[in-house]
Amino acid sequence: MRRQGLLALLLIVFRGFAAEEPQLPCVPRDFGFGSVVCVCNASYCDTLPTPVLPSAGRALVFTSDIEGARFLRTQLSFSDNQNGTGADVARFALESTAFQTVVGWGGAFTDAAAKNILDLSPDAQDRLLSSYFSPSGLEYNIGRVNMGGCDFSWRTYTYADAEGDVELSTFALQPEDTDYKIPVIKRAEALAGRPLKLFASPWTAPKWMKTNNDYVGYGQLRTDMYQPWADYFVRFLDEYAAQGITYWGLTTQNQPYDGYLPDFSFNCMGWTAEEQRKWVAENLGPTLLQHGYEGVKLMILDDQRYQLPEWAESVLNDPVAAQYVDGIAVHWYTDQYVGPERLTQTHDLFPDVFILGTEACEG
Ligand SMILES: *[C@@H]1O[C@H](CO)[C@@H](O)[C@H](O)[C@H]1NC(C)=O
Ligand SMILES: *[C@@H]1O[C@H](CO)[C@@H](O)[C@H](O)[C@H]1NC(C)=O
Fold first, then answer.
1. Is 41 in the pocket of ligand 1 (CB under 6 A)?
2. Does some domain include residue 100?
3. Which end of the chain is more exposed for a tag (fewer CB within 10 A), N or C?
4. Is 99 a domain residue?
5. Residue 64 contacts residue 72 (beta carbons within 8 Å)
């Protein structure tokens, strides 16, 4: 019996090594924007299978470049000695320096993304989702979800639009959630074979909670609505849990600066760092804790890095607020004006608080 067990084990190991899928190449198309995209359809999509590690002294290299390489796979050999025979690269190691831990990679499950995915044929949907989430694809492990309407929605809404409903008795997920995002998230998780680290971000509170009684433009949360707005986050997590979806994280507000701009054109709500500090310390943090959501990663800012490190200092120098905060979320707009040293400075001030890029889009 023992021998058979050993034999079976060896076979599995052997099959494991032999089982690496072939990598299907990119079918390029040039739309005239300086490089190519890879075209997928219902029967074909390029793949990026989980690599099997090469033998000792060799390295796998994956190259994507403006000339059109897309995860082009090559092997290098390396040696300890720069003059080592036949070596492509020299090996060196900074053994005493630990750099960052990568939380992962992902994309956003917006209303628009879900609708565009579901408008494809079922086979094309599967190939697209597989190319992002499955072990044959990019293995995305993070997903951002808009909490109510955002600028990638086809209408403006929140989950409690009934005027003055401070008890949130009319709170309800919308068709954008139940018919679009939730089915797509579930299929993505099934293809990933593991739960995704999902986090939710609101763009605006219901109009009636705001100083300007509108979803857009210059307007902030009314101070008498600080608690109902914290309760709204808990209701959101509860309603998604009832649909079988667990959230890994939350951001406090998408781009809080937008609601302090005159005439900002899409869903927004303004916060200063001081207002956000107070709301996290007195309302959101305690409310999440009270409802068993203290494990959900709470991220502040969710805006451009030029606001760092000041925003982080305003919130995190208050130990009451800081105890509820896990991370700092940053977007990439305006990165051309302010260098990455802002992130390093922020990290050095708050090394236990992670920094995550949460939004980057073109157009
Ligand atoms: C799908 O893409 C493959 C690879 O480019 C191509 O050979 C095939 O004709 C395409 N199928 C359709 C229906 O366009
Ligand atoms: C490697 O080769 C270079 C140039 O041929 C030589 O100057 C150098 O001393 C060599 N280094 C070692 C470690 O052999």
1. yes
2. no
3. C
4. no
5. yes
